[in-house]
Amino acid sequence: MTTQTGFPPGSSGQQRSRNPVVEAAGDRWRAIFAGSMGGAKQFGALAKQKVREQILTLPPDTLICPGHGPLTTVGQEKENNPFFG
Question: In Å, how far from its chain's centre is CA 72?
């Protein structure tokens, strides 16, 4: 599997292959982390909207690789994240 690296701040990218889809979430908006949302207070509503539209619409087994913290999946965040569940 090849991966794309160096996503600009606030962006994300997907890698598709025979393996599960991987979502690498940029850190500018501090949008989604395992079980949490980052501290983009001035952009909170916009960040939530973008996560719901661009990340949580991916397949449940999509691996989310946040800028820091543990890995998670779209399915886990839909079920367990109090900001997006």
Answer: 9
pTM: 0.69
Distance of alpha carbon 53 from alpha carbon 63, whole angstroms: 16
Q: And the tokens for 85?
A: 């569940």
Per-residue pLDDT of 15-36, as tens digits, reads 555 556 777 765 555 578 899 9
How far CA 47 is from CA of 3, 20, 53, 61, 85, in Å, comes to 25, 25, 10, 22, 15
- Residue 70 forms part of a structural domain: yes
Domains in the chain: how many in total? 1
CA distance 10 to 32: 11
